[in-house]
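Deliverable D2.4 — example input (structure tokens):
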């Protein structure tokens, strides 16, 4: 899989199911179903991914899907206990491991990156997924507005700390990837007030 057309070919069979979704319990396929349908289970053995925010939502499903295709997943989380509860039986040493990393603190990001690098010299995929939304006015440990600090600055620092490993892990057959998960929340504010306290 490499081109846009390959992705279109994979997703086309699911287009009809996505036209009229009805929320939880609808007929849309899960990521795991698509991976099974495409015969991708176990096809990426030997690859390594780091996914932030795997204690709920998209992060949990991303970690499960990557593990299913054979990737050794490191889940970077603020709350280890919450992540253990969310992932349950999917946690498996050498296949899905957790690292403490709190995007609210740049020192925690540095420590989490160092912990990851002490456990793996390979990184093929970085998924910057952790995030907060619609928080009350607050600041990160480093004094940045919370959404900006957690959703952007922490991931930027994490990428910078892991960039050499991502580049060293790339091959012509499997270039390293960085996936930045985002939302449409930016559409709901007319502008950023940089000088506002």
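Example output (designed residues):
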């Amino acid at each position: 899989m490499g081109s846009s057309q390959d992705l279109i070919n994979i997703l086309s069979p699911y287009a009809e199911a996505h036209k009229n979704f009805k929320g939880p319990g609808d007929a849309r396929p899960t990521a795991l179903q698509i991976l099974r349908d495409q015969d991708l289970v176990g096809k990426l053995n030997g690859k390594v991914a780091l996914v932030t925010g795997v204690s709920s939502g998209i992060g949990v499903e991303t970690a499960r899907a990557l593990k299913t295709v054979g990737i050794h997943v490191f889940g970077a989380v603020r709350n280890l206990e919450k992540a253990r509860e969310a992932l349950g039986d999917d946690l498996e040493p050498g296949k899905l491991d957790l690292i403490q990393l709190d995007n609210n603190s740049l020192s925690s990001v540095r420590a989490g990156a160092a912990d990851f690098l002490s456990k793996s010299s390979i990184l093929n995929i970085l998924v910057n997924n952790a995030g907060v939304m619609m928080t009350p006015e607050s600041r990160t440990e480093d004094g940045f507005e919370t959404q900006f600090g957690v959703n952007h600055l922490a991931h930027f620092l994490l990428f910078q700390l892991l960039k050499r490993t991502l580049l060293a892990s790339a091959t012509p057959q499997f270039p390293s990837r960085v996936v930045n998960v985002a939302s449409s929340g930016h559409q709901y504010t007319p502008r950023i007030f940089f000088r506002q306290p």
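DSSP finds seven helices and five strands in the chain.
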